Amino acid sequence: MGTDIHGFIEVHENGHWTAKGDVDLDRNYVLFGCLFGVRNRGNFRPLFPNRGLPEGISQETQALQKYCHSHSWASYAELAAIDPEEEALALDDWVYVFEVQPDGTEALVLEMAFDEKKGMPKLLPVSVKNPIFRRIRLKRKDALARAGYPRLFEQLSELAKKYGRENVRIVVFFDS
Predict the structure, then answer these.
(1) CB 65 within 8 A of CB 53
(2) Phi/psi at 106 (5° precision)
(3) Are 136 and 33 in contact (CB under 8 A)?
(4) Can you give the pTM of this predicted structure?
(5) What are the beta bridge partners of residue 72?
(6) How far is CA 82 from CA 2, 50, 75, in A?
(7) Partners of 112 in beta bridges
(8) Whose CA is closest to 90, among 40, 46, 137?
(9) Local confidence pLDDT in tens for the 176 residues of the chain
(10) Do 27 and 2 touch, CB atoms closer than 8 A?
(11) How far apart, in whole angstroms, are the C-alpha atoms of residue 110 and residue 170?
(12) DSSP structure class, residue 98
């Protein structure tokens, strides 16, 4: 069973927090770990782990959050201040499979679970010619490019222009 993220984009207006949309992110344990420490496959120092629920959550958030775990939140200002060049604390738990292209460059083909006991990927790709297997240390920008996060950040940026950087936040929680 996998873990998915749920939550809302909230803005502070007229003295209270109001939901303005869903946190619409795909399942991605590198991103979840980078931001919230949930299923931290990329081995990042989580930025906003288990903060609980912020004060004054919207009615929508209140209704959904009771079915989930690992509640947390982050303001737009905090998300905007993330250093994209910060490296993970250790290599990603998965192995990255590259294929040499005709021009000599390497192209990322896929990411695969890594078997520590065997020292190799759990499944070998049969369709990749001359695969190169590499475990890598990710940077935050690698995590933030995944799972719909750029689209979410753009939504938050637009709301921050209207409501102010500290008056826009995401409130999230996870299921498993």
Answers:
(1) yes
(2) -105, 135
(3) no
(4) 0.88
(5) 172
(6) 27, 18, 11
(7) 95
(8) 137
(9) 789 999 999 999 999 999 999 999 999 999 999 999 999 999 999 999 999 999 999 988 888 777 889 999 999 999 999 999 999 999 999 888 888 889 989 988 888 877 777 766 666 656 777 788 888 999 999 999 988 999 999 999 999 999 999 999 999 999 98
(10) yes
(11) 30
(12) E
Write down the number of H helices and E strands in the chain: 5, 8
- How far CA 101 is from CA of 107, 110, 129, in Å, comes to 7, 15, 10
The length of the chain is: 176
* Distance separating alpha carbons of residues 100 and 106, to the nearest angstrom: 5
| Residue 119, number of CB atoms within 10 A of its CB | 9
**Tokens standing for 53?**
């629920």
